[in-house]
Amino acid sequence: MNHKPLAITLLFSISIYLSMYSQMSDDPQFLLEQYINTGEPGFIERISEIAPGSKYEKFCKTWELLDVDNKTGIAMSRELVTGYPEFPEAHFALGTFLINGTKHYDSAIIALDKAIELKKDFALAYFHRGIGKINNKQYESAKLDFAMTIQLERGYAGAYVMRAVSNFYLNIYDDLLGDIEIALQMDPYIISDLYYFQVRKTMDKAIEIAPDNVNLYYGRGFANFMSGYYRLAANDFNKALELVPGNAEYYKMLGASKIYIKDEPGAESDLKVAMGINPDDPDIYYYLGILASDVQDQPEMGYEYFTHAIDLNPEESLYYYERGWASYELYEFYDAFDDAKRALGIDDKDGDYYALRGYILVEVEGEFETELDYCDDFKKAEELGTMFKLKKVIKKYCEE
Questions:
Q1: Degrees, nearest 5: CA angle 265-268-272
Q2: Is 260 in contact with 224 (CB distance < 8 Å)?
Q3: What pLDDT score was predicted for residue 25?
């Protein structure tokens, strides 16, 4: 059974934006800007309600494809630009898709130039243009774009990281370190969102300059972990513990890393040390559940750990998803179905959750009343993206 690392949810807060959403005026431009800044789907829903078929809704449908289907996103962005040439977000979308989906950085920069010409205070357009310029090796000009992003949005941690990258390539190392430190103070997980090879090299340099700065090791370690570089992550969390012994977060992430490098005793030991220091952290029980269910082949124990995680944080969909798999492995399909339903109730955009429910429905076909169909779930999983290879499953169960 496949599983995935838990991405720590920042306290930065969706709750703030949901509160704004409940009180805001029906201005589609305002809603669009909030959606671009937060990614919160509630803004899409509201735009669709008040401005169906508008350029705002079309932008949202396009933007949802970023890094999911960049080729289609580029085509839809071009249609937006053609249909609404004075709409800055259309040019912004095209430039961003060109950066993420092609190596046509010159064309991307031209599109983002137009977005900024139309909207002088478009902070994210400056940021993405800076990314394009970094890839084009225009480091001085990129630095100016990231500085403008910071001027417009002081709290945008990613702009500090990328300005540090510019300084790395310009050999301005003192400023590099200062920007990385500011970014990590704002958001200790920000490096994982921007872990391009240029950022990796910049982080390596920052640690070379400040080898006793524990925040640098944690930031790089978390980025390595989320990128699947688990051995590198373990090295970083080990170093963090040398600098700050007894830190529960560092033990937790070291133990989690060891799960994925097949160090079962080390993972269990580190996670239990973390649990002893901070017994109220649900993620510790989540990782102990992963260890028990998927490494030690003890789904009963995994079920208990996932349940403890849910008791501490009933709003995390991934806990229900993993407990659902534990129940599935125990042939407790009704419990598994309930957990899949809960996971989807919290997050209905994760293809893996639909895949889990599809597998459960295959096992219980005809045993209880439901209008749900496993073929629909498998196809939805494929549409949204999933770690499961479902083409053969769909062919076996849905195309006979």
A1: 140
A2: no
A3: 64
